[in-house]
UniProtKB/TrEMBL annotation:
Keyword DNA-binding (UniProt): yes
HTH merR-type domain segment(s): 5-73
Name the record gives this protein: DNA-binding transcriptional MerR regulator
Coiled coil: none
Recorded superkingdom: Bacteria
Secreted recorded as keyword: no
A Pfam family: MerR_1
Organism expressing this protein natively: Nocardioides cavernae
TM region positions: none
Keyword annotations of the record: DNA-binding
Alphabetized GO MF terms: DNA binding; DNA-binding transcription factor activity
Length: 194
């Protein structure tokens, strides 16, 4: 790890995050404090990965509060690879480009039949979440907005801002479900957040 350590200047150059913001994010627990060597602080791959995640979440419209809640779900022991997985889960869903799930999975050596089955699960559950959230917006959110004098444009803006929060919520729920499934498969007791 010693060879991977960066000074604050090197970290800001590598990530594009200002020194002031690095310190602010550390004070909010979004990134760990620097590693101390004497009077100097150094930053490792974990800091880089967590800063990249924070920047990505910001780029998708997450508020600081939503970022804090998202990052709280990532264990302090998470490796840079674990954090990169969060980025990979987040990025394809929130970008405007088309995602070729069967093609991407086939490229990983998964049979076309299995890849198509995975894509169909994603599509079915994506539609279900969208339909259920749309119903909540229609029956619970819009009446509240209308009563408060908000316009349809303000509702559209709310829905736009809801998208990254929905994605973060889905990623968190999926990770918890996978962890529970793996624990059951391994015969270990299931730990539920609480």
């Amino acid at each position: 790890m010693e060879g991977d350590l960066l000074t604050l200047d090197q970290l800001t150059e590598r990530t594009g995050v200002s020194a002031r913001n690095v310190r602010f994010y550390a004070s909010r627990g979004l990134v760990p404090a620097p590693v101390r060597r004497g009077r100097s602080g150094y930053y490792g791959p974990d800091h880089v990965a967590r800063l990249e995640l924070v920047r990505e979440l910001q780029g998708h419209g997450f508020t600081l509060s939503a970022i804090e809640k998202y990052v709280e779900q990532i264990p302090a022991t998470a490796t840079p690879s674990d954090i990169a997985r969060h980025l990979s889960l987040l990025a394809p869903v929130t970008t405007d480009r088309d995602v070729d799930v069967p093609g991407d999975l086939s490229g990983m050596g998964i049979s076309p039949e299995a890849a198509q089955a995975v894509a169909e699960v994603y599509a079915a559950h994506g539609r279900q979440v969208a339909e259920e959230l749309s119903e909540i917006v229609r029956t619970k959110v819009w009446p509240q907005f209308r009563e408060a004098g908000y316009t349809a444009e303000q509702l559209r803006e709310f829905i736009h801002r809801l998208k990254p929060l929905t994605i973060a919520g889905l990623v968190t729920a999926y990770e918890q479900a996978i962890d529970e499934s793996q624990a059951q498969y391994d015969g270990k007791p299931v730990r539920r957040p609480g």
